[in-house]
Amino acid sequence: MAAEVSPASVQANDDVLTVCAISLLAEIIGNVLHEGLGHAATALLTGTKSGVLTTVAWSSDFDSRLVAAGGSLANLVAAMVFWIALRGATGASVRWRFFPLTSLAFNLFAGTGYFFFSGVTNFGDWAEVIAGLQAHWLWRGLLVVAGIASYYGDVLVVGTTLVRYVGVPRNATRRLLKLTLIPYSSAVLLCAAGLVNPIGIQLVWQSALPGAAGAHSGLLWLRYYIPRGTVPERRSDGIDRNYACIIVAVGLSLVFIFVLGRGITLHQ
Fold first, then answer.
1. Strand ranges (DSSP E) for the chain?
2. Dihedrals φ, ψ of 50, to 5°?
């Protein structure tokens, strides 16, 4: 059942610092799921003895196609979990609903964005997956097509979910812009952490920048593709300031940059 859209929900004032904090937390979780769970954990569980985990890459002596695909697969599974959690959060505040929404967006975009990126550049996770296969050009073409189709689907899912379950009306143009542009800006965190990675500075523009600014670009234009007739199913007041969330986000961001960014050696 659709919730009544009031002028207050359209003009609600969202605290910028808290929105930034939630976005940073979601960005960190999405990255750790991709590199840590998807790549590193899969590698260690399938025979790799040790490797270096950073915010931009997992590096070890030998990685299989499964390890290369693991990052995207972990993000896509996580996206489903966050979507289910958001649908079930009927009594949660808009602040707590916004967290699984941003996590859903980051995981979906990272999970499918790599298809297109690897298909076009022949670099990255899915380029490793298809490396050495016959009719390589065909596999690259399929990655490009799959990437475009799945990414467009992601945009529709995230935009529709933002309206329905977070409760932001389609006509709340300024609010939609704020709640998508700020999360997109969290890409700065990945780039900052990439600057101190021990593998090589080139990974900043080869991995961190495309993986954040590129993959998350759907946030910049998804408001134009929210289907007509999509209406809020829950009320949405403004996101109020939460100092606990801000403090946790700042602390984890520092750890993300200066600990994980510098690399952690993991052993089986």
1. 50-53, 58-60, 264-267
2. -160, 165
d(C-alpha 113, C-alpha 111), whole Å? 6
The tokens of 149 are what? 């189709």
Q: What are the tens digits of pLDDT across the range 153-166?
A: 999 999 999 999 99
Q: What is the CA radius of gyration of the chain?
A: 19
Q: Is 240 left (phi over 0), alpha (psi -120 to 50) or beta?
A: beta
CA separation for the pair 170, 221 (Å, rounded): 13
First to last CA, the chain: 50
Amino acid in position 81: V
Digit-coded pLDDT (tens) for 215-247 = 899 999 999 999 999 999 998 889 999 999 999
The 10 Å Cβ neighbour count of residue 34 is 27
- Give the chain's count of helices (H) and strands (E): 13, 3
Rounded alpha-carbon distances, angstroms, from residue 150 to 7, 13, 73, 109: 34, 33, 13, 9
Percentage helix, strand, coil, to 5, in the chain?
70, 5, 25
Percent with pLDDT over 70 in the chain:
95
Whether the predicted pLDDT of 5 surpasses 80:
no
8 Å CB contact between 4 and 23: no
Residue 137 has which token pair? 């050009």
Q: Return the closest-CA partner of residue 207 out of 74, 134, 90, 113.
A: 113
- pTM of structure: 0.92
Neighbours of 145 (CB within 10 A): 13
Paired tokens of 227: 């289907």
